[in-house]
Design goal:
The complex is a heterodimer of chains A (about 230) and B (about 270). Chain A is mainly α and about 230 residues long. Chain A has ten helices and no strands. Chain B has about 270 residues and is an alpha/beta fold. Chain B has two domains: about 1-100 and about 215-265, Periplasmic binding protein-like II (D-Maltodextrin-Binding Protein, domain 2); about 100-210, D-Maltodextrin-Binding Protein, domain 2, CATH 3.40.190. Classes of the chains: A mainly alpha (about 230), B alpha/beta (about 270).
């Protein structure tokens, strides 16, 4: 129990003194996970919506696969991305291994199925409501998707935030593809793993509390910026 | 608003990957856990302008990174594997830099009486007889290879051990955490042990046998195999690591009054 109090105290001091290392790795965590979130959302939101409205031959199989991929083990994704980006792998010439870009690629792969699955679930219900209206207005596929995304934005926000939660707390993949290089690819989760390895539990816990605070902060900020839970706008 | 914020973040990611003088160096966990890297890296940046990016891994993985060309040079401690690396054409040469030593760490009540051992082999024979919990790195690292060679030297086969011999497949720090939790014996490098914060009931029981010395060597990755490696910077780094400032910093680095590393590079 003592370790937890020490961790809280250490977290407090790190934040109060605006520790330069802490700020750097926190910003990098945000940078990597938010970029991954934007890219993954850009792929997954239209994809999930498309799956809800379009009927095609292997639709069920695609949806089942997507649902299964929600549980994709990050460490396996990390290993595959590592092998692909390694200098001896097919994309080695790009020199991306052990850079933040590699970490973003891994996180996009991890969270896209999650966001797409949640989007699909939400959009299926919305589509049932909108189906007759949009069909009778003779809308194009693109118009239908746009309408559903705009009107279902609250659900989509939930989907995206779930993806962000998985990305910011993820350590297995980014440890492998990022390499936890000080001042280059070290983020909060890999720093926690490192400090635990050094037996410095207080500092590791302090970083953990900062990570949790950051995740909560981003969620609140996004809700506030997009004005959810206010009357008249949703 | 959100879109604009994210656009800025995306742009900063893309621009953030372009840097000037960077060398990627794969090193063993003991080099970083000892804290020596925190002393050397700023000095290197000051003197040469090179930004050394450390990839902290076990010796086995460090050699793999070098073979694949994912790093520019490696600094590890497992002689046989290093020589095979150079012989395979993956590295240009092997340059010895410094050494530190391994120590036997175990529970304070010392059921196997390792504290009164006369040599490293004797210490392991005592452990092999008493069969107390023993944590092995089990990750193909330099420390793990050293431990296995010490068991062989003691006339014991680590592969045949059951139950009490726990291979954790983790780095030095994580293995020490496990040993601390199990109150088990473990072979650790002195630097990692002194810097370790979660000692619990563990104490240093035996050290000093020359068989426990641990030689670090620097191996540049072969530019003929991997033309993208920063060969000039790697050579500059080698000159620095074998130069006067390095002698001073390496020999002068102490934890709790104990010197950890001994510089022994031969001038060219």
């Amino acid at each position: 129990m003592n370790d937890i109090y020490e961790g809280l105290a250490a977290a407090f001091w790190l934040v109060m003194t605006l520790d330069a290392d802490l700020i750097e790795i926190s910003l990098r965590s945000l940078q990597v996970s938010l970029t991954a979130l934007v890219i993954a959302s850009a792929i997954a939101l239209p994809l999930g919506t498309l799956l809800a409205i379009r009927r095609f031959r292997y639709r069920r199989l695609t949806i089942s696969l997507l649902n299964a991929l929600m549980g994709l083990p990050p460490v396996v994704v990390g290993l595959i991305v590592y092998i692909l980006l390694s200098r001896s792998g097919p994309f080695g010439v790009l020199g991306l291994l052990f850079t933040p870009t590699a970490m973003i690629i891994a996180q996009v792969i991890i969270i896209t199925p999650l966001i797409a699955s949640i989007t699909h679930q939400a959009m299926r219900e919305l589509w049932a409501e909108y189906h007759d209206l949009l069909i009778s207005l003779n809308t194009s596929g693109r118009q239908r998707i746009t309408t559903l995304i705009l009107d279902g934005r609250r659900n989509l926000l939930t989907a995206s935030l779930a993806g962000f939660g998985r990305a910011i707390g993820e350590v297995g993949a980014i440890m492998i593809v990022g390499g936890n290089i000080d001042n280059a690819t070290r983020v909060l989760t890999t720093a926690i793993a490192l400090e635990t390895g050094r037996g410095d539990f207080a500092l590791a816990l302090a970083l953990g509390f900062v990570l949790i605070a950051l995740a909560i902060g981003v969620n609140i900020a996004i809700h506030w910026l997009s004005r959810t839970e206010r009357e008249g706008r949703w | 608003m959100i879109v604009r914020l994210l656009a800025v973040l995306t742009a900063s990611v893309i621009s953030g990957t372009v840097f000037a003088e960077e060398v990627k160096l794969a090193v063993t966990t003991s080099f970083e856990n000892s804290g020596l890297s925190d002393v050397l890296l700023p000095a290197i940046r000051e003197d040469t302008g090179i930004d050394v990016q450390l990839l902290v891994v076990g010796t086995g993985q460090a050699l793999r990174l070098g073979e694949a060309g994912d790093v520019d040079a490696i600094l590890v401690h497992s002689r046989a594997a290093e020589e095979a690396f150079v012989a395979g054409g993956y590295g240009t040469h092997r340059r010895e830099i410094m050494y530190n030593d391994f120590v036997f760490v175990g529970p304070i009540d010392d059921p196997a009486a390792v504290g009164i051992a006369t040599s490293a082999a004797d210490a392991l024979q005592k452990i092999g007889e008493e069969k107390p919990a023993f944590v092995s790195r089990g990750d193909d690292s330099g420390t793990h290879k050293k431990e296995l060679s010490l068991w062989r030297a003691a006339g014991l086969d680590a592969g045949s051990f059951t139950g009490w011999y726990r291979e954790v497949g983790a780095g030095m720090g994580a293995s020490l955490n496990t040993a601390s939790g199990l109150n088990a014996y473990i072979l650790a490098d002195r630097a990692s042990w002194l810097n370790f914060g979660n000692k619990g009931d563990l104490v240093l029981l035996y050290s000093g046998d020359p068989a426990l010395f641990n030689q670090y060597a620097y191996l540049p990755v072969n530019p003929q195999k991997h033309p993208h490696v920063q060969n000039d910077l790697v050579a500059q780094l080698e000159t620095w690591l074998t130069g006067e400032r390095a002698v001073e910093l390496i020999n002068g680095y102490t934890i709790a009054g104990e010197a950890l590393f001994t510089f022994n590079a031969v001038p060219k």
